[in-house]
Amino acid sequence: MAQLNIDCEGPITRNDNAFELCEAFLPGGGDFFSRVSRYDDYLADIEKRAGYKAGDTLKLILPFLKAYGATNQRMEDFSRRTLVLLKGTREILPRMVALMPTFIISTSYWPYLRALCEVTGFPESQIFCTSVDLDGYRITDSEAKTLKRLAREITGQPILSWPEHAKPPDDLSDEDKSVLNRLNEIFWDIIPSMDIGRILDDVNPVGGAEKARAVKESLKITGNPLSEVFYVGDSITDVQALELVSGAGGVPMSFNGNRYAIRAAKWACMSHNSAIISAVARLLSLHGMNGLENLMESDRMEGPELLKQMMEQGVEREFIKPLHADSVSPDTIKLVRLNRENIEDVIHESEKVRKNVRGVGVGELG
Questions:
Q1: Which of 118, 123, 29 has the alpha carbon at shortest distance from 79?
Q2: 201 CB-contact burial (10 Å; exposed 0-12 / middle 13-18 / buried 19+)
Q3: What per-residue confidence (pLDDT) applies to 343?
Q4: pLDDT tens across 306-321, in order?
Q5: Which of 204, 254, 252 is nearest to 54 (CA)?
Q6: Which burial class, exposed, middle or buried, applies to 309 when counting CB atoms under 10 A from its CB (0-12, 13-18, 19+)?
Q7: β-pair type (334-337, 3-6)
Q8: What mean pLDDT value characterizes the chain?
């Protein structure tokens, strides 16, 4: 039996909870997070630093959130208040749980996933996410003062940039080398010397290799082989899970993904409505993991024609109906089989949809 392993932010919700927490608690918090996130992309994808993985942004920002007064309760209250579901989510999550074993694998903090479970009824036992206990850490007034100064400094820095296929650090400009060196000093020398610094060792965000590990853990629960996994992700934190599933013959799909996710996937889906995910899952449950290959008459299908073909393959109206309002324009729902010839065009197209659905600030994050 096929199973669904799905990211949360992007395929299910419109939020980037960590970005929004920084915006809420830190002055200039959105700019601060964007700079730390770009640093995360560099360490994970370009430098490939030993012991570092995509998504570790979520531990790097914690000392700063603590300095500005974040607590467990405040994080949970904020997450519950700001949770925004993607269109179709309320319909698809109960349907997916009933259809096949379904697990959410998210880099996000547990308070945010708890809020999602409260709103949608999704079972907490089927969640893999980042555990954090801010209340369990001490921070002195002096440390808080220093971290606030460092936050202002980071916010005032240029965002790291590098050319395509850069080799670290030679291909960085002098300005970017200076920014990189200072960020390295802040995160790996200054903060670790503080009492609050031990949070960097204790917190292990579920991104990169940890998402791939979570996929394997979910298989221990279901007893399924890796080839039966339908994995849906959208960002750099999903790359290793997408590659794992791809290598085993499963179905790795980018949903409104960025360049990192698309390059690791075999399929790209673009839509404002997450109900398309449940329609694809139903197709796989009916026809096996080759269901998409059998459906696609070409490398791209869109809008009404895609939904028509799905129904002809036996996907019931209950899975298609939530999409009808969004299928009037053929530009609204797109499913693409990725190959060398189309991948760069799909990246451009998908990133445009991503920004439109989630906003430019979130959409530009790795």
A1: 118
A2: exposed
A3: 97
A4: 999 999 999 999 999 8
A5: 204
A6: middle
A7: unpaired
A8: 94
CATH superfamily of 3-13+86-131+207-363: HAD superfamily/HAD-like (3.40.50.1000)
Strand 251-255, strand 229-233: pairing? parallel
Enumerate residues 6+ apart whose C-beta is below 8 A from 109: 17, 18, 58, 75, 79, 129, 130, 132
What CATH topology corresponds to 17-81+138-202? AF1437-like domain fold (1.10.3870)
Specify the pLDDT at position 325.
Answer: 59
Alpha carbon distance 17, 21 (integer Å)? 6
Give the pLDDT confidence score for residue 143 in this predicted structure. Answer: 98
For the full predicted model, state whether its pTM sits above 0.85. Answer: yes
What are the structural domain ranges in the chain? 3-13+86-131+207-363, 17-81+138-202
Q: How far apart are CA 185 and CA 280, in angstroms?
A: 46
CA distance 116 to 124: 9
Amino acid at 209: A
Q: Spell out, as residue ranges, where the chain has pLDDT lower than 70.
A: 325-331, 360-366
Burial of 280 per CB tally in 10 Å (0-12, 13-18, 19+): buried
- Helix 209-222, helix 239-247: angle, nearest 10: 50
